[in-house]
Amino acid sequence: MSEVEEDPAQLLAVLATRKADWAATPLEDKYQAALEIRSRVLEAASRWSRVAAHTRGCSKEAVAAQELPLMLVPLANYLDNLLTWFSLLGWSTSTEVTLASASQGAQLRAASPAVAVVRSVGYAPVESLAAALHLAFVSGAVVGLVLPAWQAPLQLVMEYIMDPLARGAFFATLLAADDAEATALTSSPAIDRLHLVGFTPDDFGALAEAAGGADALPPLVSGEVHGPAPWIVAPGPWTQAQLAHHSQVLAEAAAYAGGASPYAARLVLLPTAWEQADAFVDLVRGELAGYKLPAAVDPGVAQRHADFRRHYPDAFVSGAGPRNDLIPGVGPCPPWVVNVLEAYPDDPASEPAFQTDPRGPVLTIIATDAGSEEELLISFLDRAVRAVNEDVQGSFGMTLVAHGATQKRYAAQLDAALAAVRYGVVVVNANLGLGLWSAQTHWGVHGGAAEVAPGRTLRLGSTQNSLLYDEGVKGVVRFPFETYLHILPPEYRSITMRASRQLAVGIVDGMRGFLRGLKDKSWAPPVTVGEGSGGVVA
User: Fold this and answer.
1) Is residue 94 part of a domain?
2) Model pTM greater than 0.85?
3) Interval 337-349: pLDDT, tens
């Protein structure tokens, strides 16, 4: 349906006329649409990765190669689960046996006509697209996906992937020229449901104020509740090489998309009594000190960065210059800030490092007291779990890093800590982005709902809920302490586009997909960015 030059308000009005038709669409037709979208995800993965790298202001091939599996794996796995549900419900041509439970069957059958709009903050295009898929195929809504102007290059490739829905006017990308237009779209009376990706309570409050009050928003607002996305680093017998490796993993988790991703690392807790704590902090600081400044693609990053620095004037500030592959016309981010707090704050509720998501080049590290040496891990875990549960804003996701020997010796204590944290998804030994790879995780707000404004509840939000849980279900995704899947800066581990695609297709389609990728010569169509158009020409 949606030609990119069309007015977004007009596109939204057209969607509203089509919601009853989509709700009444036979499930066999929806199955076929989902199947075609999965095929298009694989076809467009290489194109997406290059365009996404451009959107982040980078032209280096290694940056694009890192983007490819982060898009292809979660979307393909998510669609695979949805297609399995359709098959088990008996609408696939490959089976006539209905095996799904009545609860899941009712969700897919009983679609009420609705217009849903997805809006994100920061850099979260894959998660926004996953939310749009869920709203369309599980909730049965026609969907408009609001894109900020700085993400305009992604619009054409999104339209290509979602064409099976867009050509029937069941999906449209809504390119907003500025925040005012985005707010007008998300508060339109034509909308029945608004889904927010990456929003903190402060972001929700700002949106409600801009819209003229929370009551001006649609009757149903869903989303995750984001915050600083904390990391807990458990003490253990780390070698120097392991310290260096995980300092690179953490630095890259903080630096992804210039820190604009709502899933980037912002806050790290480690124990003061750990004899390697100082060495680890020095290595992380050294990594970020050497990071060349990426593009300042998010227009609000300079102000958020300045606000954070005013609160922490003594924080380390990098002197690194800009990257050498920035897209012309896009300036660099502000310098990296590593904020090391020597003591746990007396009033965490007033600490910006605990309560805000600067969505920029900022990382805070805090060492907490943790008792005697022999009780170090147990006492630290207890303190750290209470900290992330009670003092840190948000309940979406967090990371726990633990050495293999520590996991073996203290398995019961670590399992208890994982069970106690009140976060929607917990990733062990990797960043939150890798947790999205598993289509089994829910990626919803922990506990099912949260009050984000007086009298206004943000209901269960599902960026990814392909198992059709009725309520919020915490997901724990475990990785080895050291794994090739760890995302490192390109200078430490560079991967070609072809190898990246083969790896990603092998993950989602197994050996058959991997071997098919070896023979596929059309996997990476050339892509250039049209000068002045904001579009992409393939």
Assistant:
1) yes
2) yes
3) 999 998 899 999 9
